[in-house]
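Trying the structure run again after the queue cleared.
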Amino acid sequence: MSRGQVLTAAQMRAAEQALFDAGVSVTELMETAAGGAAEWIRRVAAGRPVTVLCGPGNNGGDGYVIGRLLREAGNAVAVIAPLAPATEAAAEARRRWNGPVAGTREGAVGDVFVDCLFGSGLTRPLSAAHAALLRDLAAAHRFRVAVDLPSGVATDSGAVLNEGLPAFDLTLALGAWKFAHWSLPGRALMGQMRLVPIGIAPVQGAAQLVERPRIAAPAADSHKYHRGLLAILAGAMPGASLLAAAAAQRAGAGYVKLLAPAAYPRTPPDVVTDTAPPCDALADPRIAAMLVGPGLGRDEAARERLEAALHHARALVIDADALMLLRPGMLPTGAPILATPHDGELATLCASFGVAGEGRRDRALALARASGMVVLAKGPDSCVAAPDGRLALGPPAPSWLSVAGTGDVLAGIAASRIAAGTGPFTAACEALWLHGEAARRAGPAFTPSQLAERVPEALAAAL
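Done. C-alpha cells:
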C-alpha cells in the first residue's frame, strides 16, 4: 500500500476492481472500509449520539455498516436515508443494520453527524432536496464527519457542486487520497483529514502527495563546493534576488554567489557578489546550479542576462520575470530545468508553448510535457509536474504565505536543493515542504525575510 498516492475516481475504481479480482467481495471491502471509518467516528463521538445520512450507493452502504458498528459499540445511532439502496452491497448493509431508517431528518437527534450520502465519483450537483437535507443535518449537530468526501464535492477537481454546502470537522478518505482532498475549493470544507487503509495496492502512474522529505546532513569530508555552488543571476531589482539568496543559504547549498550588475547596491557581508559580465561569471565550472528571475526585470538587459544563464546552464531554476521572457526556442537541451510559475506566469508560459488545460494541475502537466521542464505551479494548492507525467500535490500550507516575496524564498530553496545535488522534481517537492514548514514555524503575518530565517528549522525537521 502507498499511503501517499492520490487517485482519480477512475483509478480508484480500477484499484478496487483489482481487489475483487483477487477474491475480495464487495461486502467484505465495505466492511473493511466502514470498519476503519467507524473506529475513527467512535473515538471522536466518545459515547455521544450519532446520526448517519446514507445515500443509495456503496457510500451509503458504508453508512449502514458504520451505524451498525457504532450501535454495537454502545452509541445511540439514528440512520436517515432519503433513497433506497441501489446496489446489492448497499442493500445487504442495510439488512445487516436491521434497525429503523428514517426518510427525513424529523426526529433526528445527535451530537455527531456522519455524511455518507454520496462519496467519490460524484460529477453533478446534489438535488435541491438532498442539498437541503445535508445542510439541515449538518447545522443540527456539533461535530461533522464526511466519509470519503463531503457530498457535493467533485472527486477529481475539488469543485464545490452546490452553493452553501456545510463544512466538516473531519473527512475520512477511504482506501486512497483523491484529488479533491488536496484541491481548493473543496478542500476547505473537509477539516482534518485521515486516511483509512483498505488494502489498495500502489497504482502505476498515480500522483503522489508531497510528504516530509528525508534530507541527509553533509558528509564528514564535505566542503562548500561538494555541497554545491549556486549562482543567482540578479537584475534591476535587488530585493527579490537577495531574498532568494537568504533562503538558498539556509537550504543546504554550500556556497551562494550573487551575480549582479556593476551598479548593484551593497549586499550583506555573507553574500558573495560578483559584478563581472554574466558570460564571464557564469563560465565558472564549479557552478552546480543557477537561479534566474527574481528581480531580473523585463527589459533588453534582462533578456540578455537570461540568455546568458540558459547558454551556460548545468542545472537551472527559472522564476518570476525570467518566466515572462522565456520562449520555447531559448531552452537548452540536456540541462535539468525547474520552472516555478504562479498562475499568471503559468498562463503566459502555456500561451508561449502552445498548450492548454482546465486547471493548474492540467496546465502544469501539459507545460512540462511540451517544454521538458519540471514545473512547480505554485498557489494555494501547489503541484509539481514532470515531463514524464509524474505529478506531486503540495499539502496545505499556511495562508500567511500569500504575501509578496515568499515566491522568491521558494525559488531560493528549490535552487539550493538542486545545487546540493537533488534532481529538479525531488528538489521542487522538498522545497514545497520546507517552504510550508518554515511558514508554520514563522507564525502569522511574517515578512519574506522572516520566512527565510525559519528555513533552517524546517531543514532540521527533515534531517
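The chain has a mean pLDDT of 94. Worth checking whether this holds up in the mutant runs.
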